[in-house]
Design a protein that fits this description.
Layout: E1 20-22, E2 27-29, E3 34-36, E4 43-45, E5 73-79, E6 86-94, E7 97-100
C-alpha cells in the first residue's frame, strides 16, 4: 500500500515506495493539504518495486480536477508504456465535451 498526498514532495507516507516527480514540481491547495498539479510537461512516477505486478489485485484511488480536455490527455497510467501492456485513465474531448475513459 502507498499514499502520495502531494504535500510538497513525492513521498509515500504509509509505505516505502517514494515516487519521483519529473519536470517542475508543482503543488496547489488540495482536498486535504496540498496536491500535485500537472501542466503537461511534468509527471509523477512510482518505481516498479513493491507494487503489484501481473494478475495481482490492485486498487487505485485519487481525486482529480481536469482543466485541460485536450485529446489523449493521460491522468493515470499503470504498467509498461508499450502498446497494450498498461491500463490507465485519460481525457478525450474538447473544451465543451470531455470524456474520462
Amino acid at each position: 500500500m502507498a499514499w502520495y498526498p502531494g504535500n510538497g514532495n513525492a513521498n509515500d507516507i504509509v509505505g516505502n515506495v517514494t515516487g519521483m516527480q519529473t519536470g517542475s514540481a508543482l503543488y496547489v491547495p488540495g482536498k486535504v493539504g496540498q496536491a500535485f498539479t500537472f501542466n503537461g510537461s511534468n509527471y509523477f512516477d512510482i518505481p516498479s518495486t513493491n507494487v503489484p505486478i501481473g494478475n495481482a489485485a490492485r486498487t487505485v484511488q485519487f481525486w482529480v480536477s481536469v482543466h485541460n480536455t485536450a485529446p489523449d490527455h493521460e491522468i493515470f497510467v499503470y504498467g509498461s508504456k508499450n502498446f497494450h501492456r498498461s491500463f490507465g485513465i485519460d481525457v478525450d474531448g474538447t473544451a465543451s465535451n470531455a470524456d474520462v475513459q
